[in-house]
Amino acid sequence: MSVKRVVPILTVPDLDAARRAYANVLGLTEVMNHGWIVTLAAPDGSLQISLMTRDLTAAVNPIISIEVDDVDAAHRVAVQAGLDIVHPLTDEPWGVRRFFFADSAGNVVNVLSHG
Question: Looking at the whole model, is its pTM more than 0.90?
Answer without folding.
Answer: yes
